[in-house]
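Record 1 of the preview.
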Amino acid sequence: MTGKPKTVFVGDSLTEGGRWQEWFPELEAFNLGVGGDTTDGLIERIDEVAALDPDTIVLLIGTNDVANRRAVEHVVRGIETVLVNLRSAMPDARILVQSVLPRGAEYAEFVKEINRHVWQFAATVRAHYLDLWPVMAREDGELRPEYTEDRLHLNEAGYEAWLSELVPALERVHDLPPSSRPIRLPELGSVD
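->
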């Protein structure tokens, strides 16, 4: 038992590439990023997250759904399902969901639409939302070229830019006591 807040970073290769324990030595950090993961894949891995019984969950998922040309509704429903399942499995955990990062400019409007929906939904499951778009995107919606070599994965400068937003967001999240209100899960309708 370390006495440090147990924090799980969960998502795809962008999360997997993070050196979370090094960057957050005050936390007991677990990296559950899986390269190539999608919202559907993460839904299947919720038990892996819950098994760690984290104090805080930091979520970044969705860019591979975008690459696979999933409909906006599919990606949004997937992220919402992840959030609902995380909240249901861990009612007292703090959850920080981050906006899907920009990619190439051709994806900009698509990703912005996903992020608008996730931002609106986050509060319904008592999740905090961190909009990374302002620091990561150029005006045309392209991932800033100084942060990437391939318009998707982050280089060191990209991780530094992400951390410039994530560090204060996590500080805000950790200053809040776990919620003791009973939760009401939103009606998601049938999933086809």
